[in-house]
Amino acid sequence: MDTSALATSFGARLPDWVAAELAGVPEVLATDEDRIRLVNRLAERNHRENTGGPFAALVVESGTGRLLSAGVNLVLASGLSSTHAEVVALSLAQTRLGAWDLGAPGGPGLELVVNWRPCVMCYGAAMWSGVRRLLLAGDGPEVEALTGFDEGPMREDWVEQFDARGIEIVRGVLRDEAVEVFRAYGERDDAVVYNARGAAAEATASRSA
Ligand SMILES: [Zn+2]
Prior knowledge:
Blueprint: H1 16-22, H2 32-48, E1 56-61, E2 67-72, H3 75-78, H4 85-97, E3 110-114, H5 120-129, E4 133-136, H6 142-147, H7 158-164, E5 168-171, H8 175-186, H9 199-208
Parallel strand pairs: 3-4, 4-5
Antiparallel strand pairs: 1-2, 1-3
Helix pairs in contact: 2-8
Bound molecules: zinc ion.
């Protein structure tokens, strides 16, 4: 075969507006509210900037609140379907540390902060990353109802599955604020729902047509 046509690497980079947004953020996000407030803000701006869906994530040292990485959903900007905010934040933290295991013995306890419950892909990504805590603005039907995004076939016992692996789940921090971001996104008549197939895809096609 002619291998010259095959891609041999792939990558994604944060849009410049993220650095500008983070420039005014303190080094330390002391409370759960501080952390969720930032992901909500990044999620809101991400869809306004048309770089991806209304999702953002951080990797933070749980004890100190030091921010290690920030990610936003980059599916539209990167053309890569796996670049959800959680995957981006985890990958940037792993790149910064030069290590795939964010839970290595002797390291600081790291957590993933997200503005909603992970989708089925990010459920696995979070689990395999080594983070010890998952801090979520919320979970429930609002994302799918307000935005049209599909979370995939999540297990009913997803909290217990994290728990069984020693990963603490904290939910319901500034939840209403997170829902407002999804509502604003859903009210846009030019919003792109990129992961949809079947009935959801038809709804999107008619909406974006
Ligand atoms: Zn995801």
